[in-house]
Amino acid sequence: MPKRILQGKVVSDKNEQTVTVLVERRFKHPLLQKTVRSSKKYRAHDADNQFKVGDIVRIVECAPISKTKRWTVLLDAAEAQA
Q1: CA 33 vs CA 7, 25, 39, 44, 76: distances in Å
Q2: What is the pLDDT of residue 1?
Q3: What gap in Å lies between CA 54 and CA 9, rounded to an integer?
Q4: Of 78, 80, 79, 73, which Cα lies nearest the Cα of 15?
Q5: Which of 64, 69, 51 is nearest to 10 (CA)?
Q6: Residue among 30, 76, 80, 28 at smallest CA distance from 50
Q7: What secondary structure letter does DSSP report for 63?
Q8: Alpha-carbon Rg for the chain in angstroms
Q9: How many Å apart are CA 42 and CA 7, to the nearest integer?
Q10: How far apart are the C-alpha atoms of 51 and 34, rounded to whole Å?
Q11: Which of 55, 26, 60, 23 is nearest to 42 (CA)?
């Protein structure tokens, strides 16, 4: 089964080797047919502490690293386009 890749914004980098990434998704409400925004925070492993608050990053699923970390920062979204 392929690993999921999500894109979001770094909202916290206070922990060592960890960043908190806010991933927002948009979908159409099944009954109201209105576009709804839903967001969720993921804790991701950042081995080099290179990502700062405000960076747009991609995260990928991985084996559990700690109690709350199940994601790894793949690369900066700006680097992905270059």
Answers
A1: 25, 16, 19, 33, 34
A2: 80
A3: 6
A4: 73
A5: 51
A6: 76
A7: S
A8: 14
A9: 11
A10: 34
A11: 23
Using alpha carbons, list the distances in angstroms from residue 31 to 13, 20, 25, 35.
38, 32, 18, 11
- Its pTM stands at 0.85
Q: 42-82, pLDDT tens digit by residue? A: 999 999 999 999 999 999 999 999 999 999 999 765 665 65
Residue with tokens 């386009």: 81
| pLDDT given for residue 15 in this prediction | 94
Q: How high is the mean pLDDT of the chain?
A: 92
Give start and end residues of each alpha helix (H) in 1-82: 77-81
CATH number among 3.40.50.720, 3.20.20.140, 1.10.10.10, 2.40.50.140, domain 5-81: 2.40.50.140
**What separation in angstroms does the CA of 28 have from each of 6, 32, 38, 70?**
19, 8, 11, 28
Q: Which helix (H) or strand (E) holds 46?
A: none
